[in-house]
Amino acid sequence: MMIRRWFPALICGLFVAVSASAQTLHIGLRQDPDLLDPTLGSSYVGRIVFAGLCDKLFDIDVNLNIVPQLATGFEWKDPTHLVIHLRDGVLFQDGEKLDAAAVKYKLTRDLTAKGSMRRGEVSSIDSIDIIDSLTVVLNLKAPASQLLAQLTDRAGIMISPGAAEKAGDQFGLHPVCAGPFGFAERVAQDHITLKRFPGYWDGGSIHFDQVVYAVNVNASVRLANLRAGALDLVEYILPTDVDAVKRDPKLVLAMGDSLAYTGITVNTGNGAAAQTLLGRNPLVRQAFELSLDREALIQVVYNGIYAATAQANPQGSPYYMKDIPPPPRDVARAKALLQQAGVSLPVPVTLTITNETDIQQAGEVIQSMAREAGFDVKLKTMEFASSLQAAYAGDFEAYLIGWSGRADPDGNMWQMLHSGATFNYGHYANPGVDQALDDARTVADVAQRRGFYAKVWQQERADLPLIYLWAPRNIVGLKTGLTGFRQVPDGLIRLQGLAMTP
Question: Which of the listed residues 81, 311, 468, 481 has the most CB atoms within 10 Å of its CB?
């Protein structure tokens, strides 16, 4: 028998069915994830679901240290040979055993699958040798300082080879991994349900029978559901709601540093939509940036809690460049640049935004600010997964989009600014930037890498294919009885250790 929990005044269409006897964890998501295939997926909220569904070779801890998960350790034989040792006795959710052959299968899939979002992350791998059932060697084309960090994300997620072969390109509709919870069902734009996998290798750390990820783009509704008890955890609390959560004795607020940024990607070379004044002329892009007051935007939309930025890496990173501060608003200079560019006013710009509460508000603020400098900004609002597909297809002029951030700087830069990168939606291409990004991968020394990245930022600031705006913080709301939460800067919700006390 099934009992349906229904809060019509709060849920606004959200429907969740749960078992009367099962202890269920309800997590509120700000967006609906894209395809749940770690080779093909690209959304941040998808990474949150993967954290419950799929373990990785390695993970990161609260201090951004790389720690073993499905692997037990690694060593570099030399700069181009990475040896990985696997945990014994690990099962996929279909009963298949995790072994070296499964690791080779997944990484080969990432390298070769049509539409792979991981290809650029693991492209340094030349071949893979199986030493024994629990040992693999990754043979690299050249030294790759970023590779180990890439294996703490979706490239490091292992999947059942048998299930993947059987499902083909439909694998994301019923993924099979080696994580604590197995896939049960998905209702688009509503919820994803996972059920506890009894064969999980670290079963003692799991204290729920199932987890339901409930999707709602409305921040007020998510908070109302948390306060009413329909949700146990909300992965994103708006800064403007922080005080309300702090005042509620039934709730706990967890706020910590983030690796993320949000900015405007400009289509400079991806199809016909790049043939705009904004896409063709860096002077117009520079003027657009100068029309914006980051601090005021952050104050209005994010209660002043976030930080203005003009680069990809967070201030706490050793790769943050202090000599690249976000420029202050300068409407007069913006108008002068538009005059220098020889364009007629107003300059039309179509800005794609997603349908979350804060992003819509941020879009309206940007629209208003840019108007004063001579821009006519039209907002195109889309559901998140659909906006990603439009971006890949080049169906945008400018796109307000966030990046959840990675511990290694390569993960925040190469994929967005390299001409061959997956998340370079606007197809920005500069040979000098490509070379500097590639060179930075070949060295491990921080000073040397910073030197290469300085070249990247010098050119990026001139070309402005991506106008970085703000660096958020991770703000999570929880029920007071939910214990064991670990706030890691990547923002993912790790279910190991989470438990509900009476």
Answer: 311
